[in-house]
User: Fold SRPBCC family protein from Microbispora catharanthi.
Amino acid sequence: MRKILRVAAAQMFAAAFVLAALSAPSNADTTESDAEIAAEWQTAWDTYHFTDTTPPAPDSGRSRVTNSISVDIDAPMPSTFYKYSDFNNHIGRNPFLKRVVMHKEWLAAPTLYRNLTAIEEIPYEGTIVVSKTHAQQRLHADGFYYETDSWSQPNVVTHQKIEFTVLPSGKTRVTENLTFEADSSLIDFVAANGTASHQQLQTALKQAIESGEL
Assistant:
């Protein structure tokens, strides 16, 4: 029965995702200007308040799942921190990420704030669905960690805290604490796939940093 529910949730998520993305072009990237994407970011910010970490109310129909994943990188701090936290370095390593649109960046010492949108191209039944994830990233260089809060269709909110720890022999441990929030019917699918995506990105960034590519 649980397997049937997981399959049904996956189908619901796919349907909701595709319906939400129908307004986007089914080809490379998006025809919207960066200013139009920035306006969408602001609407998501105003509507969903995606930096709010208050847990969903029990009767809200929404649920939350938190996972933690780690990787040890054979490279020193703090260079690993700056390479890993630069979302432009995720392009080509996250298999769907094509572009990062930076809307605003400012320093409120000691924290660096970035408002941005990640543009992803996701294959779906022979076509390309363009997905936009609106996010705010906060880099805490004084503590070597960063936080990212984001919102994407179909009303999925993700909170991330990525911590960097010095290990012996010049290595660095990166620990990603990931909290996914979505409709209760979709939360297991969202959390499982979101966590798997982050694990894949961790592996790719580890290889790129250790090889000197980054």
Notes: The first helix runs from residue 2 to 20.
